[in-house]
Amino acid sequence: MGEAKRRNETGKPADRKTGGGKTGVIVAVVLLVVALVAGVFWVTQPPEPEAESLPVAAANAEPFPAELDRFGVSIGDADAPVVVREFADFQCPACGRFAEASAQLKDEYVSSGKVRFVFFDLPLGQHQNAMPAAMAARCAGDQEGYWAMHDRIFANQTEWSNSSVASEIFARYARELGLEERRFSRCMESELHREVIENSVEVAKRIRVTSTPTVLVDSVKLSRPGWGQLSAVVERELGTRSE
């Protein structure tokens, strides 16, 4: 039946399956976007500090040996009621994502004296530039630039991660941060801080940390490292200190 004859007999144009199909696809895409947005919102929202879903310390968990903190890099009040420790690899993508949470932790809790943060190097064998990155941060620390370099390295992870000239990139970062470049370069070339980084790795082995990032809030290991869970556990631990 022709289109004109069908229109005359039925009063409407012929069904166009392709149009309906397109509408269905659009609706499906919209629903998917809504679901993704809702999922991201749910994941990033801090749970309530008393939420049963939050991780707790293992029944036989022993306090972290505080004397081992000397092998990490600390920031914050030495007498802060809560200590957050991170074991990380600068080349690890998940560690790069967690860096945003650690920056927020420093802004909201470390600066107020509520939390001390300790960063332990755990360069993994499969990451060729993880050790040079750790040394770059430590060398910057010799000039009071550790955390600035730490943040710069994580923020630009994709630039140097698979580069064959990562050390040159780190030297540029040092220059951009206003560090004395010759001193930084000598530190890198002599691998001045390799031993303390290797000691940091031994700390990880001692407490059986095998993956990065591993984040401990006092004796509580986060099951989903990120700002939502981190802030909630910190609040809970702070609450127990004030009771």
UniProtKB/TrEMBL annotation:
UniProt keywords, alphabetically: Disulfide bond, Isomerase, Membrane, Oxidoreductase, Redox-active center, Signal, Transmembrane, Transmembrane helix
Pfam families noted in UniProt: Thioredoxin_4
Residue ranges that the Swiss-Prot or TrEMBL entry lists as coiled coil: none
Domain of life per record: Bacteria
Domain Thioredoxin residues, every copy: 45-179
Entry's transmembrane regions: 21-43
Entries under InterPro entries matching the protein: Thioredoxin-like_fold, Thioredoxin-like_sf, Thioredoxin_domain
GO molecular function: isomerase activity; oxidoreductase activity
PROSITE patterns documented for this protein: THIOREDOXIN_2
UniProt key word Phosphoprotein: no
Similarity field: Belongs to the thioredoxin family. DsbA subfamily.
Name of this protein: Protein-disulfide isomerase
Lineage: Bacteria, Pseudomonadati, Pseudomonadota, Gammaproteobacteria, Pseudomonadales
